[in-house]
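Hypothesis: this fold can be encoded by more than one sequence.
Test: take the structure tokens below, design a sequence, compare later.
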């Protein structure tokens, strides 16, 4: 296996491992509740703690990579995520489980952005479509297959194995990254904007808590939810003001000049809501309202992942020959059709209809995510090298190119319509 192929496999393993844990624990919550002697309200903190920690720690990934090196950060994140997974599997109380899930979220947050960065640097620009197909497959197939795999492990083993399954994958991935991932050198670490980071963390963390706890506490009739809404609004307000006025804000303002990037991120946000919201609703619908066994519910949802994988493999070959906007339009149409069919679900819904809508929606998501990820970053130009920086020579390390965000944004030859 060549170095590029091995690195691709390792990066995809890290991506799938992290993305899988966003949903794999959902189906095991009722079993955890009894084992950890928790109430239905308390056990939800197993999910909330992970999501909040991951949301807060994702933004500083870029600075951490510059400060400590991308290779060191990637290996440390995989190792920490693996260790936290083992600790979650051994947890004997709710307090231990929430603490270890927080650690898992902190360590897992850098994995997906680092994986995307490594793939974009590893593959030449003309093959970025294929690289994003691989990355998107890991990001989307992980959450989709999570309920199925979690249901099988819980039914045939026990709920602790939804965490133990990460151990062999994590160990092999960390060792492989140490061997195959080259270090990027010559970068000048920026100062860290603590005020911007804390303001954004406050806004994101409080918003996540409000959305997660609101349904249980009757929304704004609860003082806790009102307090979380106020803190979230205050955090986002401080962050925006600081972003517009600081000399070196937490997020580089130049990114927002690229209309292509901003538009792509907005679309990714919407598609992510569709993916995760439908998964979050289908799991309790099948298990609670239809009273299906956990394994049956997981198997019925599995074809959705199959549709996504087929679409992504197809798009990876078509994206260089077909207008990416046409692929996205077809994908959005299929997603809309599946959502319309899902709006008619009732307690008499058949397994055939669930499977059909799952395949349709998964195929549509696959058609959308690959060209969307490729086009979103297509017009970002590399920043000029810092003084004393030695750029990586293509002959010395094929396909690994030093990248920075910022500077003038030229049109990408594959997407001439984005020229400004």
């Amino acid at each position: 296996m060549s170095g590029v192929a091995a690195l691709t496999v390792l990066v995809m393993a890290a991506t799938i491992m992290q993305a899988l844990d966003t949903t794999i624990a959902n189906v095991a919550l009722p079993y955890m509740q009894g084992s950890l002697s928790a109430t239905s309200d308390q056990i939800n903190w197993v999910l909330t703690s992970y999501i909040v920690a991951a949301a807060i720690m994702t933004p500083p990934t870029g600075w951490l990579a510059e400060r400590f090196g991308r290779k060191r950060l990637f290996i440390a994140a995989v190792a920490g995520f693996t260790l936290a997974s083992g600790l979650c599997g051994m947890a004997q109380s709710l307090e231990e489980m929430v603490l270890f899930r927080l650690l898992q979220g902190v360590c897992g947050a850098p994995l997906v952005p680092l994986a995307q960065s490594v793939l974009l640097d590893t593959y030449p620009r003309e093959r970025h479509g294929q690289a994003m197909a691989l990355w998107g497959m890991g990001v989307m197939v992980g959450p989709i297959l999570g309920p199925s795999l979690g249901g099988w492990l819980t039914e045939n083993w026990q709920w602790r194995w939804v965490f133990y399954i990460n151990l062999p994958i994590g160990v092999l991935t960390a060792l492989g990254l140490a061997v195959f991932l080259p270090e990027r050198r010559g970068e000048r670490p920026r100062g860290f904007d603590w005020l911007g980071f804390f303001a954004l963390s406050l806004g994101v963390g409080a918003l996540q808590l409000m959305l997660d706890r609101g349904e249980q506490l009757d929304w704004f009739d609860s003082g806790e939810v009102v307090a979380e809404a106020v803190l979230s609004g205050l955090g986002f307000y401080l962050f925006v003001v600081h972003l517009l006025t600081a000399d070196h804000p937490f997020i580089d303002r130049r990114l927002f000049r690229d209309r292509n990037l901003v538009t792509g991120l907005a679309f990714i946000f919407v598609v992510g809501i569709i993916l995760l919201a439908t998964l979050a609703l289908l799991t309790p619908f099948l298990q609670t309202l239809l009273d299906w066994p956990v394994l049956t519910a997981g198997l019925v949802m599995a074809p959705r992942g199959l549709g996504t994988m087929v679409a992504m493999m197809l798009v990876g070959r078509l994206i260089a020959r077909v207008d990416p906007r046409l692929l996205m339009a077809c994908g959005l149409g299929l997603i809309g059709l599946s959502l319309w069919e899902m709006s008619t679900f009732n307690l008499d819904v058949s397994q055939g209809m669930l499977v059909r809508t799952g395949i349709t929606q998964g195929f549509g998501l696959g058609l959308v995510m690959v060209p969307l990820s490729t086009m979103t970053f297509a017009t970002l130009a590399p920043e000029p090298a810092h003084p004393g920086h030695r750029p990586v020579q293509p002959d010395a390390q094929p396909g690994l190119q030093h990248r920075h965000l910022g500077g003038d944004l030229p049109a990408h030859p594959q997407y001439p319509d984005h020229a400004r």
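Residues 3-180+250-381 form a domain with the Growth Hormone; Chain: A; fold (CATH 1.20.1250.20). The chain has 17 helices and no strands.
Hypothesis status: open.
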